[in-house]
Write a structure and sequence with these properties.
With 88 residues, the protein is mostly helical. 77% of the residues lie in helices and 0% in strands.
C-alpha cells in the first residue's frame, strides 16, 4: 500500500514537472504579458482572459506549476478571473 501511494505521488509530481517543461515558454510569456496588461475595455479583458485560460486549463495542478515561475502574478490572474466572472 505504501509503495503504491508513493508511486502515485511520484507520478503526480513527475506530471507537474512535465507541465513545467512543456508549457515553460507559454507561461514565461504569460508572466510578462499579464504583469504589464492594462485595459479599461472589458471585451479586451475577456479576450485576454480567454487566451490565458486556454493554456492554464491543460495544467495538471495550476498552483504547483505556476509556483515554479518566480514572480508569476497570481494575484493579478485571480483578479482578472474575478472580473471576467462578474462580467459574465
Amino acid at each position: 500500500m505504501m509503495v503504491a501511494k508513493y508511486f502515485l505521488i511520484s507520478a503526480y509530481f513527475q506530471q507537474i514537472e512535465e507541465d513545467v517543461l512543456q508549457y515553460s515558454k507559454a507561461l514565461t510569456d504569460m508572466r510578462t504579458t499579464l504583469s504589464f496588461f492594462q485595459t479599461k475595455d472589458m471585451n479586451e479583458l475577456l479576450e485576454f482572459h480567454k487566451k490565458l485560460e486556454s493554456i492554464l486549463e491543460h495544467l495538471t495542478d495550476e498552483t504547483q506549476v505556476l509556483s515554479r515561475f518566480e514572480g508569476f502574478p497570481t494575484k493579478k490572474l485571480k483578479t482578472m478571473r474575478t472580473a471576467a466572472t462578474l462580467h459574465s
